[in-house]
Amino acid sequence: MEIDVSEFAVNITLLVTLPLAVFFGVCFGLVVNRYLIVAYSNRSDANTQPTFPSRWGKHILSWKGLLILCFIFILNFLMDEGRTNYYQSVVGGVVPGLEIERTDSVKFMTLKYLIENKNPHAINSLIDFINNKGNGDLIRHAIYALAHYPDNPDAIHTLSNILYHGQYFFFQLEAAQALADSGDVKGIDTLLEAMQPKSGLAVFSSVFAIFKEKMPAEMEVYLRTIQEDESQIEMAIKWYKKNRDKLKWQEKNKRYFLYGD
């Protein structure tokens, strides 16, 4: 299944960029064209009345003009690189790329960077980003990013809180998977505690699915130790079988998010 990432596109539509590109392209082409007509005319410069476009074309195609164009291009490139590095940096415990006013494309890029490049100082920004309840897909990736900090109690506590009190079921499922992926002892203990039918079907099913998918051996051992309502377990098994393909899609989604494959 293809992953739709159109929502992460830059928030400037072709209705704006295309007309502007055509307008400036025509203007630039007219200036260069007029200059070339005058420059390669059989008439001498003294007998040729240079027009406004041809004069500008002469300046643009001179070595000074080309140098200025190169400078503008290099400056734009450096500013773009500097802006990207600023978004992905941690300034006073805050990640600028995760601030509310940033576009989804910037947040998407920043989350991907934080997943690939672990930075303990970014944890508070990730937690605040999750608590702000913005774009659901971005929050899922932020939850996944917290799994990369298993030695941080705040990260594990946040994931545990999402597991029990997540706004949506797929947040709970993502939190359960993040706790399993973290490998943290407290995280696994949280999953074991949640593996009780009294936790509620959403929580129980989330943890059941992760155990079944990630740790089948531990799952079988644990199921033998609990003495609870077996009907709840049967419901979770039915849920797991029904949503197995969705779990595999989520794994593919993460690979696409990180590596584009």
Task: Give a short overview.
This protein has 261 residues and is mainly alpha-helical. It has helices at residues 14-39, 52-61, 63-88, 104-116, 123-131, 136-146, 153-165, 169-182, 185-194, 201-214, 216-225, 230-259.
Q: What is the approximate shape?
A: elongated
Query: How many strands in all?
Result: 0
Structural class: mainly alpha
Radius of gyration over C-alpha positions, nearest whole angstrom: 28 Å
- Helix segment count? 12
Distance between the termini: 12 Å
Q: Spans with pLDDT under 50 lasting ≥5 residues?
A: 1-11, 255-259
* Count of individual domains: 2
Indicate the mean pLDDT: 69
- Characterize the main sheet: none
> What percentage of amino acids are in beta strands?
under 5%
Order of helices and strands: HHHHHHHHHHHH
Tell me, what is the CATH class of the largest domain? Mainly Alpha
Helix content: over 70%
Q: From the 3D coordinates, which CATH architecture of the largest domain would you assign?
A: Alpha Horseshoe
State the CATH topology of the largest domain.
Leucine-rich Repeat Variant
